[in-house]
């Protein structure tokens, strides 16, 4: 490696935001699928078509608490002329041995219990006297309190058609049906279905493990005492939270001092638990830009995918960026600039889509919309750079918060949107329609 | 307790959906705040106004990699007639001992490093020869590779105004400013700000611990073998996932058999880790409705807040519901019906708002919108009941998925919205505008 300072060759090559993003998305591949317990798979993408092994419901069953009877025995029943039937016992949900319902008989049946042999229909308990002989009731007495409730006689006050209040076997899904397609994101209702068809585990792309590391000798951990020239480390906290928000399992590494050997060994150490590494700081043109220094050693021309490229982007904030892969598994690494706003905006634009690509999601980007710029004076933006200003969005209007400075963390904390000013625009008048990234 | 079967008194009292919800929201109180580590507080609601203890930035610092100089020394500088200055050393970020920049001198300065005494402005390295004497450069050589870079002379090709590329102390936030207000939900940018002002911990309402328990002797855990009359437990999985989705820490208890003593002791066991308990099944009018049976013993008239009330709601699905509180801490408990769709819809309507109320969030409900009903034939709905049908929503239109049956889990898994049919509507024609709850 040459130790000469980089020289200006007319104009530095500037990457556009889209070129950098395209390069990241073309490089990062979805993680290999693994079999996970259902609840561990929440939020993950299914990679198999799941087929129904057994019909739902698996058997004809009652949708009501009531009496399983024969249709003919309750035909013409009314409050004036009830049908009187002999109660032969209970059919509870989960009961394996079913009694037989013969002519003139009824079995007390509970919601979800199998329709017993001989029975053709179910009359709800509210259509009966509940075996008490004192007119219509609104429910049954608890079995535990009244063990004789399953004996004696019941009066039925209304007729029922065949298979009334009966859920037919397979009426939800049939064995052999496709329950869920590969590519489905597993939320609570999908987990409900998988459990209902008996799946304890499922094959999905796991959540990516993202290691977040900030760099800078000036960084002190929050809660510590600031010395002269020092500031608190905020990037490692913000980006760990943002990685979790994007769907990752995130590991925060404390800030690493500006020493290439230490940084290099910390990164190598952490590789074992990383599907993606994110660093902040040390990527610009200074003499202590240690991420650039440490990772520029990594590339081996004979070993594809083991080098980090440092670039200048036509973007504000976030001009200096590094991207590539590192280590034996070619773990992708994004080296973000160190200013808090720069690193957060870079995360939203580049790291979040990378995380969601690792997850196998189709929808990797934040939603965007257009909004009317509401502000007292025109926004200015440097020529040739795509600018991302912080703003608050509501009801089709967006208002800038704070200025363009990449150190303005307080304004960032009060924003919920990024206002996009294109490369060829240097001034945006109030009232203009602008593109907005919704930070959610 | 009377063991008489409940009798019909003309008409059962029906609670409306809104009455039941109002009762829940009037009873459930936000959890007591606790001090949490920043990253543990993600997604939580701040309960204190946070004041800035030290200005950000804490000192004037450079926004560029370049040279700290005096204004007069670079006045009139150009590529043709550069200003030649003596380089007196480096000022790196985090450096405590600062050199003094005198007339005719320059200090190499890094982004974020304090402006050294004597210096009045910063010229970016790209406006200089980087000390090489060979025209403009694009960056500095790494200090580690070229330790003599901080010595010798530098040529500066452009003038700089006073305090150019200098971020003033306090230009982000000033000591004594309010950083964040009580009530703020802590996302990544808010965590960034808290870390930046040195807060390691913060006072928030914690995530509620929600214990989810399904009941039913017919339930088999997914992965097991179904016997006669048995089905798989899906509710405990679905609602645990839904509780996590709502922001809770959720504990899934395996399905409990229909035995009041066992259920009662399981609930008492679990109370120690519950801020909210959710059960499914056993709340209707059958003889084996064990939740109702077990929890009806709980209430002590002299002990407020320790009883569960079982109700019928003017709602489909989800008519039978229980709500109240239990145990020495009056832990709120929602007893949902056992049909998978009933329990899921009940969760969305009642448990999710309860969880979000415990978190102290203002916004406890799912978003709703109106949509055009897209379907081949009219929807029918029982009179006097608010019906929640499953549907898919896109671009202002909603299409029903599956039927009204509360056992249709497969359809639920393909829905992303609930179609609301009001109590007084019995039929909805295609093309009608309907209210929709977005589950997304």
Kindly describe this structure:
The structure is a homodimer of 440-residue chains. Chain A is an alpha/beta fold. Chain A has four domains: 14-31 and 206-358, 3-Layer(aba) Sandwich (Molybdenum Cofactor Biosythetic Enzyme, Chain A); 43-54 and 173-205, Molybdopterin biosynthesis moea protein, domain 2 (Alpha-Beta Complex); 61-167, Beta Complex (Molybdopterin biosynthesis moeA protein, domain 3); 368-438, Beta-clip (Beta Barrel), CATH 2.40.340.10. Helix content of chain A is 17%, strand content 29%. The first copy, chain A, has helices spanning 17-27, 71-74, 188-196, 235-246, 260-270, 290-295, 340-358, 409-412; strands at 14-15, 34-37, 45-46, 50-51, 61-62, 66-69, 83-91, 105-109, 121-124, 153-156, 166-167, 178-180, 201-205, 209-215, 219-220, 231-232, 249-256, 276-280, 308-313, 315-316, 320-326, 331-336, 368-373, 379-380, 386-394, 397-400, 417-421, 427-428, 433-438. In chain A, strand 21 (320-326) and strand 22 form a beta hairpin. In chain A, helix 1 runs parallel beside helix 7 (340-358). The radius of gyration of chain A is 33 Å and the shape is elongated. Chain A starts with 13 loop residues before the first strand and ends with a strand. Residues 1-11 of chain A have low confidence and may be disordered. Chains A and B meet through helix 3, strand 15, strand 16, helix 4 and helix 8 of A and helix 3, strand 15, strand 16, helix 4 and helix 8 of B. Chains A, B: InterPro entries: MoaB/Mog-like_dom_sf, MoaB/Mog_dom, MoeA-like, MoeA_C_domain_IV, MoeA_C_domain_IV_sf, MoeA_linker/N, MoeA_linker/N_sf. Chains A, B: Keywords: Magnesium, Metal-binding, Molybdenum, Molybdenum cofactor biosynthesis, Transferase. Chains A, B: Belongs to the MoeA family.
